[in-house]
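QUALITY CONTROL LOG
STEP: pairwise intake check
CHECKER ROLE: data steward
CRITERIA: each record must contain a sequence immediately followed by its structure tokens, with no blank fields

ENTRY 1 OF 2
RESULT FIELD BELOW
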Amino acid sequence: MFEISLTYPTPLLQDFLRFMDCLKEEDTVLSPKNQYMPREQLWGLNQLMSFKTENASPKLDQGSYPLLHMFYHLALAANLAVMVPGKGVKFHLKVTDRYEEYLKLTMCEQYFFLLETLWIDADWEALQKATYGRIPNVRLISSVWQELARVTAGKTLNVKDSKSSWHSWLWDWGYFLWYFTYFGFWQFTQDEEALKESRRKIEASSLTPTEFGVSLAPILFKYRDYLDWNHVNLRKGVLTSQDILDGLENIILSMGKKPQGFAELARARQESLDEPFYKKFVSLVGPSELMHTLPRDQKDCVEGTYLLKVSLSRGKWRKIELAAKHNLHQLHLAIQEAFEFDDDHLYSFFMDNKKWSHDRYESPLDEGPHADEVTIGELGLYPGKTFLYLFDYGDEWEFKVEVEEISSDKPLPLKPKIVGKRGEAPDQYGYGY
């Protein structure tokens, strides 16, 4: 059995603790464009990490620090930190009370909670944005864990050889080569020729799996397929693990052979979907060390009256009051009324403020998930939270929605109502604002 600690299988937990303590102690003002942490702060943090970015300088942005870039996304995805608006277009990164609950977990529980966050909640495209800008080929992710489960721990694999399966599987993994190094799955040697082109062009020339990684790999392959578990991928609705298995079966059948084990694997994956992520790993570490995690259901309905400020520009905004029971489609209708629009186009709410991201709710006439299927109280909103409302995909009217207040004392409005305004409504069909 493995004994997870601050420094085993790697110093991941120790470094994450230092990262979060820094967020608690310092005012972290994010950059307006990418909402990245300040460069001076990153440079200072890098000095405290066990996994340091070599040859760093105060001029490098967050994308040049793979460890800190990963921690930033894990903290947000796990709701251990949130972005709250400051002056102008700037946001501050603030640690939440949920972090105190994280600290009450055992070291083992903390490790698997972070792995769970990476596997289920994190946007792999955002994690990879600093390098290739695309995630590893989702059709091949499962193959990596399948083969990792078969190799000998400590035996170095040649990844650079174009004839090697590992070369075709890992060529586009970029920062994920680092991410799974931090989680203790392997060590890798960087391709120096690629590094000469760019410090962010991360490719491996060799890979050495660890005993820890080889032990976790079969569980990830058999019971925790990325396609079935990652929420961002599921929102895309592109592929499931069953699609991959069906394709492989068809290939084998076309070769005149009989597929083996596909039905059993599909059944094992399906049956494991309803259990907590960490459950299948208990046998590797012992039940006394891995008994709990933080609650996954962050969307229990928060009752009350919500006051939202909807801004088209600094001088044009409306305040809308609505109840927890009202849904996003009703908010859409209220915004249309508030700004005197004709409600004649599709729309989306992007909960991460990023236009065209997959963290969105769409018009009931669009593909979904739909705005009329989620209530305001189920969104996990809090005072200071902002999200983007985009109306008309041609003209792209962008509205910033900010939660100003959630009150349990005010009477619940029967329907969303406009309670404040500034600025004239724009001409929807002209040059408006």
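ENTRY 2 OF 2
RESULT FIELD BELOW
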Amino acid sequence: MKYDFTTLLNRQGHDALALDVLPIKDVEVDPNFSRIPMWVADMNYPVFENIQRHMINRINEPHFGYFEMPEDYYKAIQFWQKETHGIDVEKEAIGYENGVLGILSSALQAFTSSGEAILVQSPCYIGFIHTLNNLGRKIIDSPLIKENNWSLDYED
């Protein structure tokens, strides 16, 4: 499976939240700055052609609605867990979530309590910050260090 990670799409003005919206009020980007959005998960590469073809095929079906996850979904997860970790996972222990923020919210509610402190390294996806705030978690910020690359501030 070969993929081109070098060709960048011109996303500005084409439903690209990362390029067309600034999440901070009254902030303007220096025109000489090459904007690299670090606040939203938005791709600047074309989608893999297999994914696009399957999406087009599904869109061409004249019906939409709610659905149950197919058995293959559960079997794939069970197979991966067995092969990767050597464990058997019951189907009833497998859930479904259609987005990273829903997963984050579920994990936070399962493993933390309102008011509890959560360590975040900034810059951070704004959706994570909103989720933490909406669930009443206390954010402890440990900013990343920008030198040649971003790195953790272990002393902090």
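INTAKE CHECK: passed for both entries
DESCRIPTIVE NOTE, ENTRY 2: Strands lie at 117-120, 138-141, 145-146, 150-151.
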